[in-house]
Structures are given as structure tokens and as C-alpha cells.
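The freezer alarm interrupted the setup, so I double-checked each line after restarting. Inputs confirmed:
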Amino acid sequence: MNAIIVSALLGVVMMFSGIFTTNKTIIKNIATVGMLVLLAANLMEMNNLFSFDINTHDLIVTQRYGLFFNCIAYGATFIYLVLSGNDITEVGVNVAEYFALIFFVLCGVAILSSFNGLLMLFIGVEILSIPLYILTGSDKRNLKSNEASLKYFLMGSFSTGIMLMGIALMYGATGNFGMVHGAGLRGVVTASQQPPYLLVAGVILLFAAMSFKVSAAPFHFWTPDVYDGAPSVFTSFMSTIVKAAGMLAFIRVFENQYTILGPTWHIIVDFAIVSTLLIGNITAVFQQSVKRMLAYSSIAQAGFMLFALYASNTEIAKEGILLYAAAYSLATISIFAVLIKLHDYTLDGFNGLAKKEPVLAFAATVSLLSLSGIPLTAGFFAKYYVLAGALQAGGALWLIIVAVLLAAVSVYYYFRVIQAMYFKEGDPQTLPITGGFKAALIAVAALIVLLGIWPSLLLSWLYF
Amino acid sequence: MPIQYYIYLCLALFSIGIVGVLTRRNAIIVFMCIELMLNAVNLLLVAFSKVHNTMALAGDKTSMAGIEAQLFVFFIMVVAAAEVSVGLAIIVMMYRNVHSVDINFLNRLKN
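Predicted 3D structure, all chains:
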């Protein structure tokens, strides 16, 4: 509860800070400190030190798992604000509002990690999405940003309609929204007889809408355009923290639910995983713009995260999605922080970066290695955990082989960027780079390697 | 009146909304179709609420079953209002830049 209340309040504080000062640095610093306050409030609840106690009639049930996910998301947002905070202030004139919207999104993240029942799922998804429509269009003079925003908005509210229809049909079949204490949706279905048609149709519509939110194929088509058109700083936020939160909600809502669909469930999930991995990885190979390549790579990474959905009843997959969220967020935030500093987002724009800015090139290399899942980086164990979970859940050997093969394909397009930085000649134009930024990049790279050597550093924390 | 009539009406409205979103090119009309989808869901929820209430009343004269669906309808209305305010702002912003609300403009991003 702490996280929900404090993040919403901080959002209001940020909006008011825009009235009292127009100094961008001060506003950025308020946001960074606020982020630490939010993280501290969440940690306090996690350690039972202090928490607001509100009777929500079991609409919201905080569990250690969800609180731990909040910590990862807020920690990643803190790193994001440290690395890219200055770039947020360069997007437009309404600086305070951007930070306020980021805090509102984090409120949605907190709801999605603790919802119990479909009503709060709906509210959480909307609180997560609506500020993002605005952030996508925040570069008001830029036509690409406008288009991305309109496209994201229309498709996002369309998928909301689909999701609500699914929820309404499920309600019609069962007579409740699954608000059973701590049980998620499990309370909805009581007997194991043939499920009613309404319920099956509802579950499938809900699955489609949630796939849209996490950009899993075949509902991924908005992702490249929106991620490409949005201001790069906000793409970084959307493709990491928001996507991980959407994925967590996806897993929580379908946890142990597939029993009602029987064998059909495996056909649906297998299809979603394979098509997401194929479309993400194969299309990314042909991209010339690194930003667009990262958009497709985020689709491909969503395919890997779906393995945690496939195996959502195993412990290792639950740990895996947390590790995946951390590893993927760190790597993507750091590669985007480097990308924002360049003038040219195409592959050629990276030519010769290693000679000119060795620190940036090094940090980008570590992030790209982590994204492709090379051992000794966090990405390796993240992929290992989710795939091991799928193996433990049983019956999916061919799926895992496909995933590993496509991970090999992903090495190709990630390494093209590394090759451009180290082995090609060029004179990349960069924005001014401060020493603090370089130090922060090195720290993030060190964190990625540390998690890659010692993933239990993060995960052991879940149980104490 | 049998419940099936309400379900058919809601599904018809919902389908009209979906077809409208997929075929119309004017952003405002697409937006109206999305609202139609949401309102079809509202009607469906209220109808289901009545069904579950009637079923519960047969056993217990003071039952409040089905009330949560009516609550859900209010939440959908509030969220839809928030979406309208953001959506219209985005459409106005678009109109200022290109003097058109035709969503065929959106295809330019692909290149």
C-alpha cells in the first residue's frame, strides 16, 4: 500500500513543483530524491517497519513477491533518472509534468504487482497506460512523436475495450471478479467440469488484451512504430519498467488459470511464444536504425519473458521473471542512455564510438552482451532461469530449442552494433558528456556483471 | 425479458465498435467506436449483474450478489472519461500540426 500512496502523492508534488520553480536541475533533483523516498517507503513495507493500513476489502493484497518486484522497478527507475534525468528535461518545456507522469506510471506498477481480482487489474493497466500516451506525444512539435502518440492511444484503448469485454464475459460465467483472498483468479473457477463457453471466450479475450500490453505477437504491431516515434528517453522507460510490470500482471492474472482451458491453453501460449520470438528476432536483423532495432529486440525479449508465463506454477520461473526484469531493465536503460547522447541513431552513427568515447562504448557493449545472453552478464542467468522453469513445467523441449536458436540469431544483430563501435572508422557526433554520467554508466555495467556472476545476490533477498 | 437478448444486443454493439475501429479512417470516429465498445461492456455488466442477483435472490431474499458488476461500471465510466480527455488532447495536437485527423497519416512512421 505504501508504494501506491507515496507514488501518487509524489506525482502531485512534482506537478506543484512546476509552479514554484522553472529551474530544470532543481525539478530533476526533486524527482530523484522523490524516487529514493518511494524506494525507501516500499522497503519499509517489505520489512514490516511501517505501512499504511487501508481496508481495501481484498481488492489489493500486498505480498512479498509483489513488493520485491516494486523494489526492482523503482531501483531501475532511480538508475534511469540518474542516467537520463537531464535528457528528460530537454524534451520540452513542461519538465515537471514529465516527472509527475513517470510517478503516476509507477503507481500503476504498484497496483499491478498487488492487485487481487479483475477490477484492480483493469485500474492498474489503465493507470499504467494513460500517462504513457501523454509521454509518447510529449515532443509536441515533432510529427513522429504525434503520430506515435495517436497510434498508441487508439490501439491502447481498443485493447482496453477487448480486455473489458473479456472481463465482462468472465463475470457473466462465474458471478465474481476473482476477489478471493490471496488467490488471484483461482477463486473464479470452482469445479473442474467443462468450463462454460462464456468463460473460455472471456479468458481468450483477456489473453489477447494482455498480449497487446506486453507487445507479444500477434499483437505486437504497434511496438516498433511507437517506440521509434516516442522521444528516446521515454522509449527507454516504456520498454523496460512498464513492460516488465505488464508482464508481471500478465503472469499473475493467468497464474494457475490455464487448467480451465485444458490443452487449448498450451496451443495458445506456444503459439504466442514462438511467433513473438520469431517476429522479434528475425525482423530486428534487417533494421538499420539502432532505436528501431531495440524496439524489435524488446519484442524478442518479451518472448523470453512469456516462458515465465508458460511455467508460472514453478518457483524457478517466478524467480526468473524477477531476474529477467532486473537484467533487461538495466541493460536497456544503459544502452538507451548511450543512444540518446548520439546525434545519429542509425548503425553508422555508432561507427568509431570506441575511439572517441571509450567509456560509452564499453557500457554499451556490456549491455548488448547482457541483452544477447552471453555468460558472465545478468542476461545469461535471466534467460537460463525462465528456460529452466519451462523445462521443469514439462513438455516443452522443442520450444526451448527454438528459443535458444533464436537467441543465437539475436547475437548477430546485437554484435553488429559492437562491431560498428570497435572495428569501423568514423567520427560520431555526441552531445556533451559529463564525468558523472560516465561514472554512472560504469556503475550500471558493473551491476550487470555482478548479477551475471552472482544472481542469488538479488534473489536471496526475496526470501529474507 | 430473457438474458440472451441483452447479450446479443451487447455483442452487436461491441462488433459494430470493432468493425468501426478497423474500417474508419477518421480519428474522431475511430475514437467514438472505441467508446461504443466500452459502453457495450457496461450494458453487458449491468445485465449480468441482474442475472446473478436474480439467481441469488431465489435462495436468499436479502442477497446483494451482483452489486460488484455495477461498481465496475462506474470505474469504467471514470477511466473512459480520463481516456477521452487524453485522447482528444492528442487528436487536437495532431490536428494543429497536420490540419487533418485522418489516420492514414500514421503510415508514414513505417519508413
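Quick read of the result. Chain B has a mean pLDDT of 89.
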